[in-house]
Design brief:
alpha+beta; Aminopeptidase; 6 helices; 7 strands; about 35% helix; globular; Acyl_CoA_acyltransferase
Length: about 160
């Protein structure tokens, strides 16, 4: 059974392994993080944890029973009762409902623990899997957008 956990410093090694293992897979549908991200991973993790401590973001990892990271699901730019949702699931865990489960779990946390009233999200038109997950979890299309120069859709979900 997967578990959704708030990001902690001790997740660092498993999170870095997750990002490295899935780098090419993610780059097929979202912009690559670049070599600098991996070279300065510890600094980036510390910055994320500082943002989380300040309450402007809520970062999470999805782990398996052995503590291996299967995914990330984040709420960022928290303000005015809302936040932007972002997530990524490991290639080996894709297609099994883990993304939808994770989004549902973080929506419950957003409403119950973080006091948020809505979430927004965006994905590219060619990312059919993410579009399906957002639709299945109660997000509705609210308009078009561009993500790294690619056409996409913006979504919203009331909590």
């Amino acid at each position: 059974m997967p578990e959704l956990q708030p990001l902690r410093l001790d997740h660092g090694p498993a999170l870095l392994a997750f990002e490295r293992e899935n780098r090419a897979y993610f780059a097929a549908s979202v912009p690559d993080r670049g070599d600098e991200y991996f070279a300065r991973f510890d600094e980036r993790l510390s910055a994320l944890l500082a943002e989380q401590e300040a309450g402007v973001c809520h970062f999470h990892v999805v782990t398996d029973a052995d503590g291996e990271v299967l995914g990330r699901i984040n709420l960022y730019d928290v303000s005015d009762g809302g936040a932007e949702l972002g997530y990524r699931i490991a290639e080996r865990a894709a297609g099994r409902g883990l993304a939808a489960w994770s989004v549902r779990e973080v929506c419950a946390l957003a409403a119950g623990s973080y006091g948020l009233t809505f979430l927004t999200a965006a994905t590219t038109l060619d990312n059919a899997a993410s579009r399906a997950v957002l639709a299945r979890t109660g997000f509705t299309v609210v308009g078009g957008t561009r993500l790294s120069g690619r056409p996409g859709l913006s979504y919203r979900r009331s909590l």
